[in-house]
Amino acid sequence: MHTILRSGKKEVTIGIDKPFVIIGEKINPTGNKKLAAALQEGRFDFARQLAERQVAWGADALDINVGVPGLDEVAAVVKVVTAAAESVDVPLCLDSANPDVLRAGLKAAPGKPLVNSVSGEEKRLEAILPLVKERGAAVIGLTMDDNGIPKTPEERVAVAEKILQRAAKMGIPIEDVIIDPLVLTVGSDSKAALVTLQTIELIRKEFDVNINLGASNVSFGLPDRLTVNQTFLAMAIQAGATCSITDPIKLGTTIRASDLLLGRDNYAARFIKYFRNTEALREQGAEPAKV
Amino acid sequence: MSEQLFQKMAQSIIDGDSDAAVALARESIATGIHPLDAITKGFVMGVNTVGDAFGRGEAFLPELVMAGEAMKAAVATLDPELKRRGSERKILGKVVIATVEGDIHEIGKSLVATMFGASGFDVYDLGVDVAPDKIIGKAIEVNADIIAMSALLTTTMVKQKEVIEELEKEGLRGKFKVMVGGAPVTRDWVKAIGADGYSEDAIGAVTAAKQLVGVA
């Protein structure tokens, strides 16, 4: 199954037979005080730089979140979306819990954007799915509902099914719904990653839809987080995940290597190209550690 | 002699060894050590050690979780003896704690709740995604000293403010101290919403809570 996203001119296809799609996560002021301050001061150059930098490092699409307390997010999302769309030609992913912010972002975004996210919660289903349908966008569905995040893979699959059914009822094509099986940290529950991996396999088998992954939660509270994140991502790709909202600078090389090892990269062309591109970036003094 | 036992107790917590902690708790009861001494001179020392190491980035989340579980097991073992002696552990204060409505982040909140409990607070953990009226209702019901709220999202932080506003509206603001925490929470935010206490981490939260109830 193929989920197609579009920017102004470019098309990105998410699918199990395609290279894994990287959705750059860095335009998000949570935990980025510099970006939060810039947005509050009405400066959008920093967001633009983050957009360019992530695309240079291999991001296929960009997540855009403007959640700063006290900020007029509806106005800000339009500015940031416009700035990003002017500077890079990749599809955008609008990231907010606020339907008004999503509506404004969807309107400003070119092509066919992605919405992050809906869940099995009634309130979210009712508020978000109509926006997705109206705009002809794609949407990420989180496998949690009004009772929280289910503990078992089977229960998470049931939530995924609910989201898919509600989307279908609304007239949203199944290929435009990407399921996110959610990852909790193995720092507080050592089975947390395993549950997610099993959920990915089940969802792939049951519905064959595309699967998104937030890969950096998994290592919270642990040392050497990068290794844990990289290893988990590789395992999740093997299990059937097809895209991730993540840091292309830190995890791009793991993703390209996973594609190569799974036979999705003829003559290792993408892997080698990625190596050359990022080698050049590193030589320019843009080490991942400094981001 | 009991000094040695206290040290072993602390070590069992540091090791996150619930079985050892329970065995040591039983041993202390058998040798007639006051359970309160076992807790404050023994087990809590271990919690403090792990907590400090976590604060310095030298211990990690799973170790803190294990230490918390061992502490719980030790206290549960000592509890009947405490009751028998009619000397309940001194409670520093009552805390109602929750992650705010719309937010399902659990770890930080649970960590703080565990540390509060281990440090001598009576903790009512309402879980995640808890509506303001539920938080306030529980605080009234148990006559809490502190309401502690976690929010991990910039979009759900506003609920911390809502709870404080609601308390003000109901004329209850003076009745409870309010603590807030979570990754996006800053000192400016704490000031802006008029909260009483805040910390960057679970260990600091205990210090802040002790200050709020006047025992630090």
Strand content of chain B: 5-15%
SSE series of chain B: HHHHEHEHEHEHEH
Query: Which CATH-level-2 architecture of the largest domain in chain B?
Result: 3-Layer(aba) Sandwich
Structural class label of chain B: alpha/beta
Cα gyration radius of chain B (Å): 18 Å
Helix content of chain B: 55-70%
Distance between the ends of chain A: 34 Å
CATH architecture of the largest domain in chain A: Alpha-Beta Barrel
Number of strands of chain A: 10
**Beta strand % of chain A:** 15-25%
The assigned structural class of chain A equals alpha/beta
Strand order of the largest sheet of chain A: 8-7-6-5-4-3-10-9
Can you describe this structure in just a few lines?
The complex is a heterodimer of chains A (291) and B (216). Chain A has helices spanning 33-40, 45-56, 73-87, 99-108, 122-135, 153-170, 192-207, 225-239, 248-261, 269-283, and strands spanning 3-6, 11-14, 21-27, 61-64, 92-95, 114-119, 138-142, 177-180, 212-213, 243-246.
Q: What can you see in these coordinates?
A:
The complex is a heterodimer of chains A (291) and B (216). With 291 residues, chain A is of the alpha/beta class. Chain A has 2 domains: 93 residues, Rossmann fold; 134 residues, Alpha-Beta Barrel (TIM Barrel), CATH 3.20.20.20. Chain A contains 10 helices and 10 strands. Chain A has an 8-stranded parallel beta sheet with strand order 8-7-6-5-4-3-10-9, covered by helices on one side. In chain A, strands 1-2 form a two-stranded antiparallel ribbon. In chain A, β9, α8 and β10 form a beta-alpha-beta unit. In chain A, α6 crosses α7 and α7 runs parallel beside α8. The longest helix of chain A is centred in the middle third of the chain and has 18 residues. Chain A starts with a strand and ends in an 8-residue tail after the last helix. The mean pLDDT of chain A is 93. By secondary structure, chain B is an alpha/beta fold. Helix content of chain B is 58%, strand content 11%. The mean pLDDT of chain B is 89. In chain B, β4, α8 and β5 form a beta-alpha-beta unit. In chain B, α1 packs antiparallel against α2 and α4 runs parallel beside α5. Chain B has 2 domains: 83 residues, Methyltransferase, Methionine Synthase (B12-binding Domains), Chain A, domain 1 (Orthogonal Bundle), CATH 1.10.1240.10; 120 residues, Rossmann fold (3-Layer(aba) Sandwich), CATH 3.40.50.280. Chain B has a 5-stranded parallel beta sheet with strand order 2-1-3-4-5, sandwiched between helices. Chains A and B meet through loops of A and α4 of B.
